[in-house]
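Re: weekly structure request thread

Next one in the queue (605 aa):
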Amino acid sequence: MIEEYKKSETKNHKYKILIEIIGKKLLHLDEDSNYYINKAYQIAKQVNDKERIADLDVIYAKYLKIFGNYSKSYEYLHKAKSYYEKTNNKRKIAVTYLGFGETYRVSGDLRQSLNVLAKAERVFSELKDTLELAKVYNQVASVNYEYSNTEGMEKAKKFAELSLELIKNKKNTIELIVSNLNVLGAAIAGLGDFEKAERYLRESYSNLTPELENTYKPLILIHISQTYLERKNYKSALRYGLESYYFTKKTGLKLYLFWIESILSDLYADIGDYKNAYFFRNESNNHYGSIYSEKQRHNMMKIKYDYEKRIKENEIQKNNTIHTYQLLACLVSIIFLIVLVWVFYSKQQVLKKKNNQISEANEKLNEMNVTKDKFFSIIAHDLKGPLYTFSSSMNMLNEDYDNLSDNDRKEFISSIFESSKTLNRLLENLLTWSMSQRGTISYEPSVYNLSKLTETAIAFVNQRSEQKNIKIIKDINPDISVFVDENMILTTIRNLLSNAIKFSYPETNVRIKAMVEENSNINEKPEFVVISVEDNGTGMDNDKLNKIFSLKSTESSKGTAGEAGTGLGLVLCKEFIEKHGGTIRAESKINSGTSFIFKLPLGSS
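Done, posted below.
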């Protein structure tokens, strides 16, 4: 086919051959697809064929999605969709919805994926295009499977079966058949019928053609491996898992490698081969460092802790006799020193008390000055910007309302709305901080479910996260309860999530997770739960990290979308957490994100 392209003399014929080459290479996951896409772009631009350029935008978006550049994929799909909307090409608009749906799925935004696929379904239903409708149902099945719950598995099974029914007896549908059988087998495995699942997966495998192997063979093999793993047939599970891994290594597709390596790590851990479990976990982390198995990490740390504890107990037993004699000698020396220290201490106590009184007075004075300076800084700087925007937008609407277009009016109203929201957030933190300084905030702790508290806090910030297309991932055991003041902790979690969203880039994730802190004395019950809020945003240097909980720093950094702030949110978080007897700290690295880790008392407290 490439030779045919080289020999072709007309641009139209060259273009058609290039589209066929690109289709086969994308199916084969070849990175050099980009070379042929650029060649096709050159031909389309030379003849100024805008529709072909838009078609190539859709193809290039698929290439970018395959190789992990999701933001660029969105960009090219939007370009194509804009052109199709101008020409009112409903079918091709729906094709872009299919592209959006798949890109949203692989980037983790499952809800948005289902939304755009629903739009595609409506268009193709109106056009009575059963083949494209079958593609929609295939994607809907894949999205529902990734929810990883019973409802998701049942929906995945339903839509895969619908897709197969639509393409029955149709030609050129082998890829859809392979994909649907794969999803159907994986969903049935998720519902617990592993033998039936294996039959569908093997049927999918038997339909593979050489062109489809790079895309589907690793997925089918790892799904077969999982069915054996669930049936405790570790030998077969390992065989198919490793076959999937070594095949994927040839293609080098990182998304596949991350998933397969994670499964192999868990598989090796289940059979007690921790060396290989660690190897595959490390490989998985290298491909996608922000995702890892908390359960496996915990098991490995527990093994290490038990080993170190046994070594320590042996050393203590060995040195017990020596320590006894040393203790007696020390005791005599200590009694003598106590007498001397007591005499000196008595003389110094009066002077120390006076010095402490002076220091406390100076500290209170300094705190009052810092509080005053911070207050005026907020009034002069942080509130000035949104107030100016609010006022100027209102002024423009007032003076030129009749001369402005509808779009201009909407922009001004939107600007006023955003300014009012910013002012509301700033004033809310300012008011809470002021009440805290005056000691007028009530503290009424009770037992609350941590997962539900977190969901309430997430609801407050959902609109802001959706504006930046940031996904908030909650990883909290629903059985964990905490003994806290509801309002204080809602304010704390909301501020930390808002802070994470503010400094996160669009299309990224913010994760909040919790685990019960293990007590060093195994005979005592745990007292605290450790909660962390993590982002992959701008991060900060050590100088800024050391100042974030202090009023002495008057800096208020802008977010990735220019969001303003007062710098009071983190100060409030620290005050409220310490009020509960907990602690808070931050870990950060420039351009790698920030984690805030804090402790709260368990509900049994």
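Residues 289-309 have pLDDT under 50 and may be disordered. Residues 3 and 230 are 49 Å apart (CA to CA).
Next request, please.
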